[in-house]
Amino acid sequence: MAVPQFQHLAGRVWVCPGDPDPEAVQAGVAVVADERGSVLIDAGQSPTHAREIQAALTAAGLPQPRWLVYTHHHWDHVWGACAWPGVEIVGHETAVPLLRTEAARPWSHHYLDEQVRANPRLGPSFRARARAMDSWADFAVLPPTRTFADVDELPVGVGLRHVGGGHAPDSTIVLVPDSGVMLLGDCYYPPPAHLRRPDDGLDLVLVRRLLQDDYLWYVSSHAEPMTAEQARSAVETT
């Protein structure tokens, strides 16, 4: 696995890709760098991953975050949150009960094994969780502390918009208009593998609704950033 590194995308936006191996289930993260307080988009898939991201921030000379935005509640986007002290966690209001339920589960390698035996369809996700977690000491699943219903804007000009969709009910996109960047999370992906039906696919109708002339970059969590031209081509030819 490569050491995480931040790459400048445009304006204030830097991206740190996740692991390209799909079995790792490691989402990328992004940061909107601002001297008034940076915004981190997603927390990393584990405390270890979060600490690697922190080291990558330092190596790139980027400010530490003041806000942590969840694009949605899935584990590979939020399990690193407990390793980010002092940040305000921001997410859609529907994430709160979902993550409170997750927080109450007795997470451990033994528990993960039990769950996979009971439901083998959980295998890819839960085995990836087991690999990601070196230790369960001090681990906690953290719900957002600042929530919104439809739209929100952080004091540094970063916008949040709830879009929902089949992948997760709380899916949120992050808008950085001064940099021409839209961060999509996993919003147009099909449901997680253990919930997916044979006819579930990418929600290109949602993507078409999101495309705007004044955004030059579209970034999802498990793929390379797309230019506006690439994004339009993808939805027009599929």
Automatic annotation (TrEMBL):
Metallo-beta-lactamase domain span: 26-222
InterPro entries hit by this protein: Metallo-B-lactamas, NDM-1-like, RibonucZ/Hydroxyglut_hydro
Domain of life: Bacteria
Keywords assigned: Hydrolase
Gene Ontology terms, MF aspect: hydrolase activity
Gene3D superfamilies reported for this sequence: Ribonuclease Z/Hydroxyacylglutathione hydrolase-like
PANTHER family: ACYL-COENZYME A THIOESTERASE MBLAC2, METALLO-BETA-LACTAMASE DOMAIN-CONTAINING
The protein's name: Glyoxylase-like metal-dependent hydrolase (Beta-lactamase superfamily II)
